[in-house]
Specification:
19 helices, lyase, 4-stranded parallel beta sheet, Rossmann fold, binds pyridoxal-5'-phosphate, alpha/beta, 7-stranded mixed beta sheet
Length: about 450
Amino acid sequence: METKILLDESRLPGRWYNVVPDLPAPPPPPLHPATREPVGPDDLAPLFPAELIAQEASTDRHVDIPEEVREVYRLWRPTPLIRARRLERALDTPARIYVKYEGVSPVGSHKPNTAVPQAYYNARAGVRRLTTETGAGQWGSALAFACAQFGLDLDVWMVRASYDQKPYRRSMMELYGARVHASPSTATASGSGILAEHPDSPGSLGIAISEAVEVAAASDDTRYALGSVLNHVLLHQTVIGEEALEQLALVDETPDVIVGCTGGGSNFAGLFFPFLREKLAGRMDPVIRAVEPAACPTFTRGRYAYDFGDTAGFTPLLKMHTLGHEFVPDPIHAGGLRYHGMAPLLSHMYELGLFDAVAKPQRECFEAGVLFARTEGIVPAPEPTHALAAAVEEARNATSEKVILTALCGHGHLDMAAYDRYLSGEMRDLDLSVDRIEASLSRLP
Ligand SMILES: *Cc1c(COP(=O)(O)O)cnc(C)c1O
């Protein structure tokens, strides 16, 4: 009767899994905004090192994980798979709930799975400094930790709403040696432009990305790193699913349902891609479901169209589910899910019908988060409470045995202000009007 299913360090995955060659159709390429032609490696060279550009377009089924990266991964990987028996008992369900817990990483989330290789490939290419954005502060913390491992400087643009709500995430980034700017900032032309129009802007990931890209593009020894959305990020995150696949096999289980929360889609993709490989090969048949916030419903209410990844329009055009690059989501507490777009690879797969999606309002999610904390003890970050709410719903509706798998992609130790608001009854569900979405989508490029 295992509660915690552990893998020995020797079982740490040796390669990442690339889902692209296993898909029935290739994803549409990113386009150059001026020429509308597919972008080539040269277009991306000011932003990313060659190895990551190659991974972005790779059609190899597997990519070997460099030993230097595996050495850092070993600080916390393999991560535990937890059978949530106490939650099952509280729900009085015949379902069995398995939770892949990524909160055991040094910074408390899945983000170092890609931060470490990104810092490594940049350092190996002779880059001196990275720039990035951060929403809830998880990605900034992860990259700050990774840059400290490989001797890189780091500048982080942190979304203003989170900068004010989460001062300890900022402290953590500074502790690892990064410089942190509240975004929009006066340090960039794109940030200054927004502030001139909206002095009280709460910021958004789209704005923060513009600032970080602007600074990286202007400097020879500086490159940019993105914490989600891109193919190479999703690739790196597949260590989550590869481990979970082995762990479930150890207890002779196959999942019937896989749920994950989606901001840009990286923890969800990392969890389910290896299981989808098995599904496409006819070895299992799980239902796969993305869970997004009702206040930023990219899959369920966005449009599948070419759009910019950032607010200012510096990035290539990406074919993705989008609410429009100028869309500023309301400041919900799951800051990591406040992104106007979705990973292009996941968007393509959603169109192919390889998984479905639901949107959940934040109070239902926090209710599930509190129930999880009171039963299993772990305080979830606000983002994965979306996945937990969907898992709880599945378990409550189960009338017979069923195996539910989800990723608890981060702990919520630095999110107590959000839990305070929920527990005091002050938290509101935020309505998003059709008009606001339509207005934003009318400005697609
Ligand atoms: C960043 C983050 C997310 C959202 O990003 P994805 O790429 O969708 O995974 C979700 N949860 C946590 C804990 C995060 O740090």
